[in-house]
Amino acid sequence: xxxxxxxxxxxxxxxxxxxxxxxxxxxxxxxxxxxxxxxxxxxxxxxxxxxxxxxxxxxxxxxxxxxxxxxxxxxxxxxxxxxxxxxxxxxxxxxxxxxxxxxxxxxxxxxxxxxxxxxxxxxxxxxxxxxxxxxxxxxxxxxxxxxxxxxxxxxxxxxxxxxxxxxxxxxxxxxxxxxxxxxxxxxxxxxxxxxxxxxxxxxxxxxxxxxxxxxxxxxxxxxxx
Length: 225
Known about the structure:
Shape: globular
Number of strands: 14
Largest sheet: 5 strands, parallel
CATH topology of the largest domain: Rossmann fold
Radius of gyration: 18 Å
Number of helices: 8
């Protein structure tokens, strides 16, 4: 799961980032309107934490940009500007939740899980495809009720595909979602191929009836056999 924090206060931004990284999210940050705009134009996120008051613009304008780009990111507004008017406008512009500062990190984490779950798998906590089940709150994977041991990136890759069954996923999109936007700096995708190869073998050996099918020249698609 990939999250963008749009917050200009360095201490709070770092605190949120460290907290979410402990929860095994891929976390990116933006400290201004223009940096955030660049990121949302070029990358996709599962959730955006959005401050309204930025040094070079308004977070509400970023919400409008997301709307005009027809992007479907979950957005939680985090702002000290706790006026009813801003809250209503933010929700009307497409925000999924509004959390006034100051807030407890445990509540923020619960809100993130809630909005992501609300938009995926019809609100169900566990994710099931074929005979494979993921318990995201515990980072556990089961095949026919037998637990499957995966390393962190194998788990992240499987979770990404389990949330997008049947969709053709470009290898660049997969890399950005699982490793973050610094993936642009690498020369090749050999490390991705290695992780997927290992994951496919583990799924096959465990008797899973899902497959990460390679589509030559493009990427991968998860199918249920």
